[in-house]
Each structure stands twice: as C-alpha cells, then as structure tokens.
Amino acid sequence: MPIRSVVYPSVVLSFALATMVTAAPPAARLPVPTPQQVAWQDMEITVFIHFGVNTFTNREWGEGTEDPKIFNPTKLDARQWVRAAKAGGAGMVILTAKHHDGFCLWPSKYTEHSVKNSPWRDGKGDVVRELADACRAEGVKLGLYLSPWDRHEKTYGDSPKYNQHYLNQLTELLRDYGPIAEVWFDGACGEGPNGKRQVYDWPAVHATVRKLQPEAVMFSDAGPDIRWIGNESGIAGDPCWSMIDPARVPYAGFSGPGVGDVLQHGDPSGSLWRPGECDVSIRPGWFWHKDQDDKVRSVDNLVDLYFQSVGRNSLLLLNLPPNTGGLVSEPDVRAMAGFRERLAAIFKTDLAAGKPVTASNTRDGNPAFGPQQAVDGKPETYWATDDDARAGWLEVDLGKPTEFTIARLEEPITLGQRVAAYRLEYLDGGQWKTIVEGTTIGHKKLDRFATVTARRVRLVVDKSLACPLVKTFGLY
Ligand code: FUL
Predict the structure, then answer these.
(1) Atom of ligand 1 nearest to the CA of 61
(2) Per mean pLDDT, which range of 246-260, 271-285, 355-369, 445-459 is the poorest?
(3) Going by DSSP bridges, is the β-strand pair 182-184/217-220 parallel, antiparallel, or unpaired?
(4) Which of 154, 199, 236, 371 can pair with 314 through a Cys bridge, CB separation 3.0 to 4.6 Å?
(5) How far, in Å, CA of 384 to CA of 476, rounded?
(6) CA of 98 to the centre of ligand 1 (A)
(7) Nearest to 260 by CA among 230, 300, 288, 286
C-alpha cells in the first residue's frame, strides 16, 4: 500500500536512530564567549579611523594646545570612509572620537576643545553623527575610541573630577548616536615622571557602557571583553588562546613582567574568555601624513597580516586614516579593495568541501557529529569526538591527487577553545608525511605551506583540553 510504504520506513529509521545513538551535544568547555564576542570575532576584519587635530598638525600625539580653527576638512565624506572599509571586507568602523589631545570630533557639552569651535561646517558639524549615519546607511557597525589620557582637559590628574568628566563624555557618545558595537579604551599615557597621575575609575566606566550599550564589546589591554594582542604590528601569537587569567593584566595600561606574553598568547587555563584584537595601521603612522602616501601597505602585505591575525584566532583592526580634506586617500582605498579581492580569490574553492571524510572517532557514533560535518561548509555543524577523547584524526579523500597550499581549520568556539597541538599530514606512497605542525585553532587557524600534491590528507589532533571538535577543515 502506498501510504504504508511511505510511513513505515521513516518510523523504523527514527526509532533505530533514537535507540542507537544519543543526540546530546558535547558539554561546553568553560569559559565560553558571549554572543557579542562571537559576533565580534565573526567579522574578522574591522577598520580604525584615526582623525582629528593631528591630521592637520602632522603629528601622532597632539599636546592639547591646538587651536580648534585648524580643523577644517572641507571635503569630509564619512560615507566614503565606510565604503572604503566595506570594500576591504570590514564589518565595523571605529572612530577616534577623542584622541590624547582631547579634541572632540563631536560637539561635547563638556569642553571647548572640539569641532564646535572649528570653521568646519561653521562650527555646527559633528563627525560622530556623520559617521553614525554613514554606517547605518552602509550596514556597517560603529565603534568609538575615547582616549582616557587627555592632554587638554584641566581636570586630568585630579582623579575624581576627571573621572566624572570622562563619564560625562562617554555618556554623550553612548546615548546620542544609536548602537555602538565596540568601545575602545587606549592604555597609552605619555605623562613623564613629573606628569599628572590619573587613577581611572574603570568599574564605573565599564558599568556605564553596560548600561547604555549592553550589546557593545569593550576593548583594552585588560578587556573586559576584548584584549589587545600586545603589539601594533597586526600579528597575533602562536599559540593564541582566547582565554586569559585576569590577574595577569588587571587594568588598561598595566605594565609588568610577562604582560606582552599573556596578551600575545592568552592562557589555556585562563578563567575568562577575552579574545585578542590586532590593531595596525595601513601606513606607518596612525594619523594621515602626506609624506606617507607612498608607504601604504601592499595587497600582499595586507594578506600576510590577515594570515597572522585572523589566521591565528584573532581579529584584524586595520587603520585607514582620512587626510586633511576629510577623505581616505586613493592609495589606501585601492589597497583595501585589492585586499578583499585577493582574499576572495584565495578562498574561492575549498578543495575538501563535500569530499568523503573518515575519522578516528565520532561522538556516540552519531552521524550528526560525524567528520562530514567539518567539510559541509555549514557554520553550525561540527565533527565531535567522544567525551573522553583528547586526541583524534580526520581524513579527507580528495578523490585524486590534488594541489593545495593552504589549510583552514576552525573550532566551534561557542563550546570553548580546545585544541592545543595538531599536525597536517598527507599520504605519500604508503607513508604519512607531515605538512605542518600547529598549536591552537580557535575561531580560525590558517596555515600556508609549499604546494602539496596529494589525494588523502589528515588533520591529526595530538592534544586537546577537552574532546576535540572541528567546525571546518578546508584546503585551498
Ligand atoms: C596607541 C595610541 O597612543 C596611538 O596614538 C594609537 O591611537 C593607537 C591605536 O593606540 O596607544
């Protein structure tokens, strides 16, 4: 009977599956990221915009004594900045609303050192507003940098007073411009031995952000959500764990033994999830300088940065500084577009996608956790091993000898970061040969190597903090 022949097998099948395997996913290995941290890392590339009085004085650190009248970017077009960022694949733009000179790019009620006393738009302009509007129009997120160190503000160094001033300005920025996805707290302070000593009220600052922009992540050397990677060259450590021990970097600007190391590498036994962000400029300076127009990074160099930041479980925050006209210069715009095109070309065809895969072990023998899940291109599925596994392997059969030169590995980080040591191997004659050895994977690990021609390729996990899980095994 037709009806019976349709119903019967599916009932039998689901009964059989239910009795043979359990569907319980692996327990998370703590700590795990918040949804905001996951969304942040998924962007992979974001853009920094350093702009302000330094653009006009040709300096990197202004002294706070600038005449606001020098700020006059007559062609300013925030939409052009956002388009340049987007052309490079960026999901967010972070503006220096106030750098160390204290000059505010919005008409803050709490200082005269701002756009309101400049000739730009007759003193009626607001760069933060124009950028917020441009970001909304282009579907790009907005982040803001508000320098704690302020060389203009008279109360700086009178800790309670300046802390209030800082909170006032932070409140203006977080209350008046719509959703802010990242708040960037710079740890820099160049006050010399006789300089002003400001003790920041970080708990109050963090509470203000959580209250006014609960979806925002906060960056500083010490997080609380995102950590500095410990250098300004765009290069993450290897290994690079997303976990850290908060006692080792307790506040922004903290310097002490081993801090650089902690920021670069994180800590496999760290109690907090605080992934690393690689901030770096597309030019030698953070601000635009005319004589650096011919020193813009090449597409090759940007791709190298991508491999050493995003490809090491970090995020690339690339600075694109607008010029005195208020536009991102042509060489920078071209480099960004070329960068994205190159990445798209590199990752166009995943040779492992959909190919037959075998594995050392599959969780409960359940195909929902089978190795095929690592090559199915779906971000929500992954290969999982049994709870007691701390090692394992995954083997792809490419069907015929195939050339590849890049491997892409990803863990499902919502369940925590696990893999501590792995190898890539290929079958050569009857022998497995090592292509590369690696340490951590996390959100993404990219390995580049001399071209290999092989049909069978293995990812061997040698060491894992909990049962290994692999979301993506790609070859290019
Ligand atoms: C540093 C600052 O001193 C630089 O001027 C720049 O803003 C960079 C991103 O952070 O600490």
Answers:
(1) 5
(2) 246-260
(3) parallel
(4) 236
(5) 23
(6) 11
(7) 230
CA distances from residue 37 to 14, 131, 213 in whole angstroms, order as listed:
37, 23, 14
Which one, of 279, 271, 270, 288, lies nearest residue 330 by Cα? 288
- Residue having the nearest C-alpha atom to atom 11 of ligand 1: 188
Cβ < 6 A, ligand 1 pocket: 60, 186, 188, 279, 286
Q: How far apart are CA 113 and CA 335, in angstroms?
A: 34
pLDDT value at position 192? 87
Residue nearest to atom 4 of ligand 1 (CA): 286
Q: Which H/E stretch holds residue 275?
A: none
CB distance 404 to 475 below 8 Å: yes
User: For ligand 1, what atom is nearest to the CA of residue 147?
Assistant: 7
Q: Closest ligand 1 atom to the C-alpha of 184?
A: 9
Domains of the chain, each with CATH number or no CATH: 35-346 (3.20.20.80), 357-475 (2.60.120.260)
pLDDT digits (tens, 9 = 90+) for 253-305: 888 889 999 999 999 999 999 999 999 999 999 999 999 999 999 999 999 99
| Nearest partner of 32 among 367, 361, 465, judged by Cα | 465
Distance from residue 47's CA to the centre of ligand 1 (Å): 14
pLDDT, average across residues 410-432? 98
DSSP 312: B
- Sign of the four-CA dihedral 260, 265, 271, 273: positive
Cis omega (within 30 of 0) for bond into 321: no
Question: pTM (2 decimals)?
Answer: 0.95
Distances (CA, A) of 410 to 242, 254, 298: 13, 32, 27
Q: Tell how far the Cα of 175 is from the centroid of ligand 1, in angstroms.
A: 25
For residue 109, which of 95, 94, 134, 126 has the smallest C-alpha distance?
126
Spacing, Cα 188 to ligand 1 middle (Å): 7
What pLDDT sits at residue 21? 62
What is the pLDDT of the chain when averaged over all its residues?
95
Ligand 1, residue 190: give the atom nearest the CA: 3
Instruction: At 444, list the tokens.
Output: 């993404």
Predicted confidence (pLDDT) at residue 165 exceeds the cutoff of 50? yes
Element (H, E) at 146: strand 141-146
Alpha-helical regions (H) of 387-444:
none
What's the pLDDT band for 133 if we cut at 50, 70, 90?
Answer: very high
